[in-house]
Amino acid sequence: MQQRRELDQVYTNRKLLNGQLDTPKWWLPTVSILGVVVLIGVFVIATMINKGLGVTGLARPVYWGLFITTFVFWVGISHAGIMISAILRLTQAEWRRPVTRAAELLTVFSLLTALVFPLIHAGRPWRIAYWIMPYDVARGIYPNIRSPLIMDPVAISTYLTGSTLFLYIALIPDLGNLRDRTTGWQNAMYTVLALGWRGNPRQWKMQTVGGILLSALMLPIFVSVHSIVSWDFAVASAVEGWHSTIFAPYFVIGAVHSGVSAVVTMMALMRWLWKWDDFIRPEHFDALARLLIVVATGWLAFTFLELTFALYGQDAPEIALREMQMFQWPWNMLFIIFFLTGYAIPVPMWLFKRVRTNIALMFWTSILVNVGMWLERFLIIVPGLARRTPFVYTWEAYRPSPVEWTIFIWSFAWVTFLMLLFSRFFPLVPLFEQKESQVFTDDVMIGRAKVPAIVREAE
Amino acid sequence: MATAEFGSHNWGMVVDVDKCIGCNACVIACQAENNIPLNSQDRVERARTISWIRVERYWEGDFPDAKARFIPIMCQHCENAPCEPVCPVYATYHNSEGMNVQVYNRCVGTRYCANGCPYIVRFFNYWEPVWPESLRNHLNPDVTVRSRGIMEKCSFCVHRIRRESRSARSAGTEIADGAVQTACSSACPTSALNFGNFNDPDSKVSKMKEDKRHYTLLDQFGTDPNVIYLAKIDADKKVGSGAAASHD
User: Fold this and answer.
1) Which helix (H) or strand (E) holds A279?
2) What is the pLDDT, as a whole number, of residue B1?
3) Where, if anywhere, are coiled coils annotated (chain A) (predicted)?
């Protein structure tokens, strides 16, 4: 961490605020194109709500398909934020600093996107408010708290609230910075948002304590959110492939795997698009890839455990399901792609430092991981439902319809669109964190000796 | 014993698989009674048919000694139903008469219950139901027409139960055994389907379910169904190796 060059504060300000103060040329065309895709997606969603779920490819017995898969995928991606900003913050991993905000942002936007899917996949989305808020008292019926579909909105909205607060608290010093550098309506906006930030010691203390408290408060969410999402499946006691007791930790570690990979993808894009080579450096990719090797291997262990448990029980329908999942067309093709992209290709590559510090390779391997992780969810959800039960009446396959694929693509365009929109008004790399780490790594003179200012940074 | 009181019955069905000839009369009767939309070719092809009761056919043995086996399958009205705890809005719950009931007004269509059901007897309305003009006046006024986006399933013809219990209550009598018949059981030409009150030890179904041929479907899930099956009697085989036990 010591080998980079000194960055003075003026340079840091100018570079990191280039998204807000002088918008890059590619920004408007990219956002416009994404905006069109988003509009098409919104139109398709509206059509689906208007016409009914008949426009999807869902059919007996596969009542959940692409939508729920994509929901689980985005909730998984959202684990990036909590992993990077809360856990790495509490463990004082210094290299987290430039990526904290991007990770938190990914959390907020992917949660917002994930929440859309359970709403639109329901038969009567206009009645879904009954879920989240208690039923009207006149009828005397409250939501069924035993159902994971009630726990889901509770967990996710808690996560969303916490992440949004976290993101905002970390944004305040930078908003003060932007307020001082803008004029007109932008100045007015930043003035309101900065909440009177002046950067005096008391404010810094409150801001830091607030951040640490929120990190600690959000740690339980780290365990709970994806556990609850996994119970959507695990409580279905009569569905082979779903009713596994290890789903909660299995899903959580899988979520970290996909979330951290998504952060890597985003870091590479930020480095390329805004030319932040001085701030997002190969050693950050190196550190994340090391983390990913551990997480991915833990996740692989759970994958094998799941299969082992299935075989150990010697339950014929369960073994038949695994046979279908792994050896029958087209699931076998998906399974091979899932295994190759989720683990077998990226993780051995990350073992080499040359790969870990190569931005392009890290970009592509992190994308592979998320292809694999999406397929993992698909391979849990759909074959579990499409299993051949004793009743031939239900032996049907599932093929997602173009409507479902459009909404799937919409979700990616929507997250990217929100990110780029955010980048126009707020810095994606936290300036103050960047400067703080600069101070921490500075040398101070003690007598004649030059020593690192912060002991934990000494290597 | 005022048996016409709500909650004093435990409605159930005994299906004698040995008597089932696979004629599908029950399916048609149910379709007509419960305002189920026509299962058009398109719906069949896309596996979106709605059929509260269905007759599964299995072939047993190899040609030329193959035997056709039939088993009618409807909602099992499980005492320990996998569909009930997962519904976020209590659209499906167990009432005090042993029935698993579906409240259409509450349903938001998450289809979670259908995923949980091992018998796959819950159906989702993908589209608004439509009938040919000639059939519009044939709808049963006692049964709600389900709108798009909600789940439906066998109700044990709950409207018939309510009708009988109302008239029994106003007459101050009890519901006689056999007075309530579901559409399927009244249409069954061989009396394979028998509906009645399991709480009454003298009722026909209570006696039938003591038969040593009795079994429940997929009992490994511990769902404790209120539909009891009586195994097929096969001269070549021992008792208890009915259709459900040897489907493959």
Assistant:
1) none
2) 41
3) none
Tokens of A437: 């780490």
Q: Domain extents for chain A?
A: 26-457
CATH of domain B11-246: 3.30.70.20
Domain ranges of chain B: 11-246
Local confidence band at A93 (pLDDT 50, 70, 90 cut-offs): confident
pTM to 2 decimal places = 0.91
Would you say residue A356 has pLDDT above 50? yes
Question: What are the tens digits of pLDDT across the range A98-109?
Answer: 888 888 899 999
Q: How far apart are CA B233 and CA B248, in angstroms?
A: 18
Whether A407 contacts A56, CB under 8 Å: no
Q: What residues pair up with A59 in beta bridges, in sequence order?
A: A62
Residue A458 has pLDDT above 60, yes or no: no
CB atoms near residue A84 (< 10 Å): 27
> Do the beta carbons of residue A71 and residue A381 sit within 8 Å?
no
State ipTM. Answer: 0.88
Please give, rounded to a whole number of angstroms, the shortest distance from the CA of A113 to a CA of chain B.
Answer: 18
Q: Using a CB-CB distance cutoff of 8 angstroms, which residues of chain B are in contact with residue A391?
A: 56, 73, 119-120
Instruction: Name residue, tokens 């008004």.
Output: A425
Q: Verify whether the Cβ–Cβ distance A122 to B114 is below 8 Å.
A: no
- Please count the other Cβ atoms lying within 10 Å of the Cβ belonging to residue A450: 9
Closest A-chain CA to B128: A52
Residue A144: enclosing H or E segment and its boundaries?
A: none
Burial class of A278 by CB neighbour count within 10 A (0 to 12, 13 to 18, 19+): middle
DSSP element (H, E) containing A114? helix A100-120
Q: Which CATH architecture has domain A26-457?
A: Up-down Bundle (1.20)
- A277 Cα to chain B: minimum distance (Å): 47
Exposed/middle/buried for B230, CB within 10 Å: 0-12, 13-18, 19+? buried
The Cα–Cα gap between B159 and B142 comes to 6
Q: Could you say which of B110, B120, B124 has the minimum Cβ distance to residue A394?
A: B120
Burial status of residue A46 (CB atoms within 10 A of its CB: 0-12, 13-18, 19 or more) = exposed
CB contacts, 8 Å: B117 with chain A: 238
